[in-house]
Model the fold of this input.
Amino acid sequence: MAHIQLPEGLPGISAGFVFRPETAKPMRALAHVLLFEPNSLTAAERELIATYVSSRNDCQFFQLSHGAAAAAHLGDPSVVEQVKKDFLAARL
Amino acid sequence: MPHIALPPDLPGIRGAMAFRPETARPLNALVEVLLTGPSTLSRGERELIATYVSSRNCTHYCHSIHGMIAAAHLGGDEALVKQVKTDFMQAAVSPKLKALLTIAGKVQQDGKLVTTADVEAARVLGATDLEIHDTVLIAAAFCMYNRYVDGLGTNQPDDEALYRERGKRVARDGYVTVSEEYLASHSHAAH
Done:
């Protein structure tokens, strides 16, 4: 149950974004630059960083959504699980 | 001493932003909407929330500069800002702002600590959903800015006068306008 009247049917940050488009715009722009635009780190590597931090913050929505994005880039969900549990033992 | 080669003449977040203008733009746009955009919370109140969160994160640059911006909005009352940093419950701010600062303090530790009772307490004192939303986002965003500034080991000067002068300018001109100056002057220095 959300603390404020967020739009129904939208999970996690999506509901916050729809509730307040003025703040959503720069946050989406920031995520786009950091995670999607050309970079010497691959998109998968950057999604893994986002997933790892979200996992340490115990944020269910983000570790699943960015974990899924990382897995899609990598074609392998097991690496994502390993990074969350113990990245030193992961095949990176 | 910064961990990477940041422009040496720009302290705190400014050096990091000049290093990477592509991320600086949305970061500045976000803080501009949150702290200076139209809101039923005053600019002084919103700066106090940012200052308080930065102070709890022990990020010297951010709590100093936003404290001075807050003071500039509050008629130069630096004592009030210091009181909010040390113990806001004793500060001469509205009960509604105290309830919002309580929520912000929990977000600073872990968003999951915010309870229905915390939100209800703010609502009873007149806080709207939008004010609660923005309080949570200011607190969350400043945890990001604080960690950005600390994680890169940016220079964070001690001299209060520097923050006071800059605080007045930011209070007057806003974040995006002031940032354009140093982003433009360093656009060839980065990388």
